[in-house]
Amino acid sequence: MSQIQFDYAQIGGVKLHYAKAGDGDKLILLLHGFPEFWYSWRHQLAALSDEYTVVAPDLRGYNWSDKPPRAGDYKIEKIVDDVLGLIRHFGREQAAIVGHDWGAAAAWSIAENYPEAVWKLVCLQIPPPSVWQKNLSFRQALASWYMLFFQIPRLPELIMSRNNFAHIEQSLRNLSADPFFFSDEEIAKYKESWREPRALTAALNYYRANVFEMLFNRREPVKIKVPTLFIYGEKDAAVLPETVLNIKEAIDAHYEEVRIPAGGHWVQQEAAEAVNDLLREFLAD
């Protein structure tokens, strides 16, 4: 952790906190998901910093980044604009975009709409929206019940913050292949981020702003035209294996897919060494 530096970037009307390691010619942006923050990429920041400039922002609404007040402020288009702004902030025209969970949703959208800004794409656990829609099963709908629950105003925040965030802590553990994977120290780091004012509401607003349009609004799929790597931990109870089938059909470029049998939803942490090796090899090609 000693090589990681912290700072802020003013991107339009939003100030984003970020962690940065390395000073290489090429830029890598690591985009976290729910309910995380830059810390979920700590292993990748360290592993890739010898060759690249590696940046893991707290996405808007999380941890020490600004938290706009309205649910509509968290539409994927806004997150995409933030990421494009970060690329410019670091004086680059392109970045390798690596995204997990909601970070992956933003990464897919960037690659679809702004391929010129992406020199390589890596997504973890979450398929493109068109693939999710095509593969959506009754089992996946049941596994995603929480997405509908999160649409209720205020009640999810109340439940999730009770008893020192016991509900979210249990979710972190349950979605790991090993329920004892996260140490008490690591859980404490997450709880610090959830205690930030309005942080829980901001995180839930990603669901409130995007779920129905992304998952149920049928649209003509846009082929991804940048080199893509998809990494999937097969013991994910939130995103089921059948939901990530045939992603290659959405890619019109070089495509690689690696499934990690012992990995759960938090695959870049649970299988950090394997994920780091995959990233090194893919980004070096």
What attributes characterize this protein structure?
285 residues; alpha/beta; Rossmann fold; eight-stranded mixed sheet; globular
What characterizes the major β-sheet?
A: 8 strands, mixed
List how many beta strands DSSP finds.
8
Quaternary structure type: single chain
Range of strand content: 15-25%
Q: Please list the strands of the largest sheet in the order they lie side by side.
A: 1-2-4-3-5-6-7-8
Tally the helices. 11
The CATH homology group name: Alpha/Beta hydrolase fold, catalytic domain
Query: Which architecture would the CATH scheme give at its second level?
Result: 3-Layer(aba) Sandwich
End-to-end distance, in Å?
27 Å
What is the ordering of alpha helices and beta strands? EEEHEHEHEHHHHHHEEHH
Helix content: 40-55%
The shape, in one word, is globular
Total count of domains: 1
CATH topology: Rossmann fold
Summarize the structure.
This protein is an alpha/beta fold.
Written overview of the protein:
There is one protein chain. By secondary structure, the chain is α/β, with parallel strands linked by helices. The protein has a single domain (5-284), classed as Alpha/Beta hydrolase fold, catalytic domain (Rossmann fold, 3-Layer(aba) Sandwich), CATH 3.40.50. The chain is 41% helix and 18% strand. The chain is built from 11 helices and 8 strands. It has helices at residues 42-48, 76-89, 102-113, 129-135, 138-143, 145-149, 155-174, 184-194, 199-216, 267-270, 272-284, and strands at residues 5-11, 14-21, 27-31, 53-57, 95-100, 118-124, 228-233, 255-260. Strands 1-2-4-3-5-6-7-8 form an 8-stranded mixed sheet, with helices on both faces. Helix 3 links the parallel strand 5 (95-100) and strand 6 (118-124). Helix 1 (42-48) packs across helix 11 (272-284) and helix 2 (76-89) crosses helix 3. It is globular, with a radius of gyration of 17 Å. The chain starts with a strand and ends with a helix.
